[in-house]
Amino acid sequence: MSGATPSAPPPSPTSKTPSTRASSSPPSAKTAPTPPHNPHIHSRIRMSWEDAWREGRTGWDAGQSSPLLQHLVRRGEFRGERALVPGCGAGYDVITLASTFQEARGLDLAPTARKRFFELRDVANLSEERAPYQVGDFFEDDLHAPFDLVWDYTFLCAIDPTLRPRWAERMAALIAPGGLLATLIFPVLEDDPQREAERMANGPPFPLRPAGVEALVAANFKTRRLEPVPPSLSHPGREDMEWLGIFERA
């Protein structure tokens, strides 16, 4: 979780994190706006993503690829030649996607995270061509587009909420026509407005609303899927706080 310029590392999500169940159908963008951005969040930033990795303060690192992503790859739902994982951290999701794409590229701000990825890539017996790792900025750097798939999990929620429209524009520029933006939307806390507001003020991770993400990308993408993630396919502690959004580039 770190491939853009912005915010401090989030607290560790654990199995003790309270669950908040999402509704069974997506709320409309009109009734579920993105919570307002707190202009004072940056005053509380204490360390950069690189500092966190170097000092071992990576409580958000679940130690494996997303169970949902593994499920989707096993089912053959993602196909193509090139995939990108922004804010990939140690790169577990990159390794998973490299099993089905000719190139799965990881992107992160933290050089120390790349060192951990190299270890994982060696264990998986993947070449640098198959699973390249780029240290850089999602918004500013040349990411060698276009991509057939961009997988976003704990990246959108990690950037300053004021950057969300720019995130959507960048995704449209990176993904080839007919390609997919797949977002594992987390944390979804709209059934608990007080907790949502607290998390928005103290993130990252900053809360997201499924309808809000859909509205962000509506100008350049059509919605294929927008649905809650079964608890069995979430990391422990994130059950009932995740939605899957799959959007096709027009």
From TrEMBL:
<keyword id="KW-0808">Transferase</keyword>
<dbReference type="InterPro" id="IPR008854">
    <property type="entry name" value="TPMT"/>
</dbReference>
<keyword id="KW-0949">S-adenosyl-L-methionine</keyword>
<feature type="compositionally biased region" description="Low complexity">
    <location>
        <begin position="14"/>
        <end position="32"/>
    </location>
</feature>
<keyword id="KW-0597">Phosphoprotein</keyword>
<protein>
    <recommendedName>
        <fullName>Thiopurine S-methyltransferase</fullName>
    </recommendedName>
</protein>
<dbReference type="Pfam" id="PF05724">
    <property type="entry name" value="TPMT"/>
</dbReference>
<keyword id="KW-0489">Methyltransferase</keyword>
<feature type="region of interest" description="Disordered">
    <location>
        <begin position="1"/>
        <end position="42"/>
    </location>
</feature>
<dbReference type="InterPro" id="IPR029063">
    <property type="entry name" value="SAM-dependent_MTases_sf"/>
</dbReference>
